[in-house]
Amino acid sequence: MTTQAIEALQLIHQDLKTLLGDMNDADWSRPSACDGWRVQDVFAHVSSNMKETVEPTPPPEDPPPAMKAEEAMEALVAPRRGWTSSELLTEYDQFYEGWLGAMSAMQEEPTASTVAPLADLGEHPLHLVANAYAFDHYCHLRIDLLEPSGPLTATLPEPSDAMVRPGIEWMLAGMPQMQPDELPPLLTQPLRLVLTGPGGGTWTLTPGTEDGLFSVDETSAGDVAATVTSSAHDFVSWGTKRSDWRAACTIEGDQNYAEEVLDVINII
User: Fold this and answer.
1) What number is the average pLDDT over the span 223-249?
2) What is the overall mean pLDDT for the chain?
């Protein structure tokens, strides 16, 4: 199970609350590093997901077509674009504890091992939902909001392994199902990914499973065509196409092969 993700969420939100305390009115309208979203929109994304987890909006009588994960997130942000910062903070404060409790409940059996579809992110055991949020909220805080990539400054502690690792685990667990069509034709040989610093480890991407999906396993054993090395923090940025992997990665082995794969990786 991934109960470590609950600690990660608590740590991330401690830092988010510190950032909120340092913000002024003008900061809310600044463009974030999340394409098309202001700082306010990023925060609306966070608070609206908390609200929908704790107090879901009843579905309409005529349900719309199924949406991709990013479309669903935008659909929650859109009606909050005219909200004041005070209204967003009220929503956040109202639902944070209940949301964290819901994430904790998903670590308990039988819920933890129950596999459920998560839009175009694939089908995953529900205990990984907390990891998905650890990735999402870390990325929005540390990449989209904070300098150097984001518009805001704050005095925060350096990210710890406890904060970063659960989100990295989601990225790598989800990658095969997030990109089932784009990556398998390119991933023809094992590729090793070495992530350094907080949240780091060594994983091997291996082609050729029976269901057509490649596998990602935490191992440094076996022969590989190439080894890609990056910090775990930078992986959150380039792995989501917020930045170019070339600024953060080194490659040993078959350079051309590794480049073809890295150019396509785009984790949601």
Assistant:
1) 97
2) 94
